[in-house]
Design brief:
By secondary structure, this protein is α/β, with parallel strands linked by helices. The chain has helices at residues 13-17, 42-53, 86-93, 95-118, 139-151, 163-170, 189-202, 250-255, 316-327, 371-386, 391-397, 407-427; strands spanning 31-38, 58-61, 126-132, 158-161, 178-186, 206-208, 215-219, 222-227, 230-239, 257-266, 281-284, 291-294, 300-307, 336-346, 353-358, 361-365. This is FAD-dependent oxidoreductase.
Amino acid sequence: MPYQSPISPGRSWYEDTAGPRPEYPALDGNRRCDVVIVGGGFTGLSAAAHLAKAGSNVVLIEAHRFGDGASGRNGGQLGTGQRAWAEELEAEYGFSRAKALFDLAEEAKAHLLEFAAANKIEIDYMPGQMSVAHKQRYVDDYKAHAEIMANRFGYPHITFMDAKETAERLGSARYFGGTRDTGTGHIHPLKLVIGTAKVAAQAGAQLFEQTPATGIASVSGKVRVTTPKGTISAEKCLIGVNAHGGTLEPISAAHIMPIGSFIGATVPLGADTNVLPGGEAVDDSRFVVRYFRKSTDGRLLFGGREIYAVNDPKDIHVHIRRQIAELYPALKDIEITHGWGGYVGITMPRKPFVREVMPNVISVGGYSGHGVMLSNFFGKLYAETVAGNRDRLRLIEDLKIPAFPGGRRFRAPLLFLALNWYALRDRI
């Protein structure tokens, strides 16, 4: 029987095309180390690789298998900048801070591609991303954004597309305009997970799967992480569990909410298709965003159904096919070979959450759908912090991230109501 993640529904196209997926042992016994990392997604594995290469004694534990969460199952789009547009960050934080956050994200993009190349990780990188407006009244904002990015933030790779160009580049007339970014692209995320784990292991990091953390405590300058079959004692701890924190650590849980996002993969569309002839990835202006791209073998990978609770849907194929048909009526009966989901962590303002949640314990997550490049880079920034330079990580730590209202009991129902209201607004 093929492996099925116990925390994410469906089997992904990525799992069937990533090649060998090494298994790592479960922890059995106690360990002492410099840094213990909880969570085997992009953040934790990147931190482990950079720390181990710098000479730290690192132990990383993952409750399931590396990449079972959003890191191995996401849409694969890198994006540009932070989740919020640079001009929105400028309005909130001022130009110098907004420019620093944008430059940090650009470095994150370059780092991901350089890390993959230097370590010979084939991530199936394909260039180009389009962001498109599903309402006419948004078009002027996209046009202004392209000009602002070039003239104010020094990023010349975004160009405005009118409705005609948008239709030609998408192969669909359902959008009113948008932007095309030639300075970014999209990847096979599970290949990056597998490759980063190999780099970390080869550098000397001790990696353990099927090893949940049952508790974290910081006492007298030391950190203790308990697991079912052993305790890890360390000088420092990184929590990188994102949407899967549960009751492990209450501060992160109050600020990061899991939402489910779901993707379908079609059969290959063929060489004569007019769908995305340039091979770019796409995201649209809905609050409940739709995102899609073609794979290296010509399949349409389409994500667009979000839920705001952790009940696994049984009908991923049906909903994804319906959304595909709205944009591409000719594909209304297309065969969907894979349907899968995963849970991403969001914060109230859709900006990353980085905080020292107890002495010597830093938690990182809440990438809010923008985590492919940011999470990998934040692992590097954490390694810099351990080495004594916290300045760049503090740029994210200092962002204003309020807790979700309602406490543990009411925050999920309140968020469900709020985000369904946004979904309704998308349709009006």
